[in-house]
Amino acid sequence: MHRIQYPAEKKRETFEAEYIELFHDLERAFAALPPEKNLGWSFKDVLTKDFEALAKKAIEFGDTFNGCEVIESVFPYEEYQGKISHFFMEYGERMKLSACHYCGIEYINVYEDMGDYKNGLELVNEADEMELLTITGMGQNKVRLIVNERPIASLDKLDGVKGLGKVVIQQLKDYENRNKHYRNHFTLDHLLPKSDYPHFALSLYNLIPSCYTCNSKTKGVKDLGKMDDLVLLSPSSDKFNVYEMVRVKMVHKGPTLEKVFDLNDFSIRFEYGDRESTYKDYIQAFKLHGRYPFHKDKALDLIVKSRNYNEAMLKELEKHVKIPRNQIRMDIFGKDLFSEGESHRPFFKLRLDIARALKIEGVI
Ligand SMILES: [Zn+2]
Question: Is 222 exposed, middle or buried, given 0-12, 13-18 or 19+ CB atoms closer than 10 A?
């Protein structure tokens, strides 16, 4: 639920230039496209135009290029998936890639490696879906194909699985070589789906670092409200404002918050600013109505603590332990709630909105 923190100013230029460099092999194929197929853009434009420009083009051309094989072959995401993922990993710390940008609750596992399997066969038969998805060229549909085939007796059986593709099969067969460089460590979602908009399969600002659950949503952009509003809903866009426009809210069952003692005593809802239907679509597309309440314990923790450690109590503590009240407050409720720039952490939005509603002093 937070905006992607790209490098700023001059560093952004370097970031984009390094990204374009990954694809120099494709430039000639792009140059050979007939004018009616190049969107009136340069190769650099297609790769690094901001999300708003991509969305405008998507509206202008609609489904003209839906499934166009010529264009798909100029922007072959699966072949470059490993390189792209590696690029994001290199920038992982600087971009604070930690929680999923869509949901804000799950880690995106930049540093998680794949389990340790004896060989490719064991990997195919035993790896969980998340691990399989870290393999270059793998997507949701291919993971499903593999899971449906299990167990297989030998890796050669994969050659007979329709739709798995050479890249994936080779990766699985090469597993023993364990070339770390070509492993993905998290998933990137194409907000403008590459099947509908093949030009944008490699576009930097169309790629959203996200968790497995958000990436396996059934959402299409058509479910995400009107195309015009997509710039408000893309974490890669300057205009993204879900963070500001959607609030997590607790609704207590009893007459007051004083009666909230366990998870059944309250529920978690969402509250919206303007354009309610647009943001509701977002919450629904990523199934956050069901996923946020699952983490109610984080809210309950704050509710109970804010009751146990009210300001009078904190004053008392300050006197006795001789630690400044601000410090005690941070130790109890979590430091992140009291300083800017922490929105990239999992559950931050949930905790911040609840802490604000509880009027905990000093919360940003
Ligand atoms: Zn997510």
Answer: exposed
For 125-171, how does the pLDDT look when each residue is reduced to its tens digit (9 = 90+)?
998 888 888 777 788 889 999 999 999 999 889 999 988 988 888 87
Task: Please list the residues that pair with 267 across neighbouring strands.
Answer: 251
In the predicted model, is pLDDT for residue 180 greater than 50?
no
Buried b (16+ CB within 10 A) or exposed e, 306-333: beebeeeebeebbeeeeeebeebbbebb
Hey, is 90 helix, strand or coil? helix
Ligand 1 centroid, distance to 186 Cα (angstroms): 11
Predicted confidence (pLDDT) per residue in 56-99, tens digit:
999 899 889 998 999 999 999 989 988 898 899 889 889 999 89
CA of 288 to the centre of ligand 1 (A): 9
Distance 212 CA to ligand 1 centre (A): 7
Q: How far is the CA of 209 from the centre of ligand 1 (A)?
A: 9
Ligand 1 centroid, distance to 36 Cα (angstroms): 37
